[in-house]
Predict the structure.
Amino acid sequence: MEKAITTALLIIAGVVCMIFVFNSVYPMVNRSSHAMVSMAETIDDRMKSRINIVHAASPSDRKTVYIWVKNVGASRILDIEHTDVFFGLETNFARIPYTGDAAGEYPQWAYSIENDTEWKASATVKITITYSAAQSTGTYYIKIIIPNGIEDEYFFSM
């Protein structure tokens, strides 16, 4: 009878220990799987995102620069206003703030989607950089970085 009671107590103790182990390990495994799923979604988004600066031009007053950027990836690009735009002479360029963030200061940039209502695959965005005074002639550098880190750069003369 003593062996039966001892065996039963050992079984109960083993079950209780397994419950403690499960309760401590399961949340870590669950958090880890959520982190892996999130990372996989981020990588998938980056792999499907691609942009290409197609062309840049400036009218003769050189206060405005137009840049056409095509979405050549497979996914829609969201939050265009959070895109980073770097522009300037190839030896002296700077980040240009979006119109909504510029607080009326120049330079600033705005955008319009030319051939769609969203920046989906194969749609083109026209970025307009506006200065308060004419820019000098020379070779200019453009770098566009969309919110998920995908980028393209371009040189042109004006």
